[in-house]
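Good day; I would like, with your permission, to put a structural problem before you. What I wish to show you is a protein chain and, alongside it, a tokenised description of its three-dimensional fold. Please examine both parts with care and let me know of anything in them that strikes you as inconsistent. Thank you for your consideration; the sequence and its tokens are set out here:

***
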Amino acid sequence: MSRLKQYIKEEFFLGFKYGGEYIEVFVNPSKKELKRIPEIRFIADNKKKKVYAWDSEFAIHTDVWDKIGDSRDIYDSDTLLSGLAKKVGGKWKMTESDTYEFGGNLINGGDFKWCDKYIEVSKKLKEWAK
């Protein structure tokens, strides 16, 4: 492994055709990779400490999760957080969460603060927990 590669955390994960569009999914995305996208969908995996992100316009969470190939149920796991995020003041911030909507208390057991490096989620989770 090159010295540079050990410090780079973001990576292109996969690409696939969905509804006539080519979808690119990134892991732990940098600002550069998502620069031209106005809104993203994401899945934060607390178990693997990875954030999968893609343009929200083209694919839904379950379709991308199927392509990732993990056996956990995306809406029935305390280790997964799925949602939407928009760029606000140069940072990605979660605006909605399918996990919260469908699973509610499931996310209360997990600490997703590590995810804030890529998408700010912890403030919204605290707000919803009230």
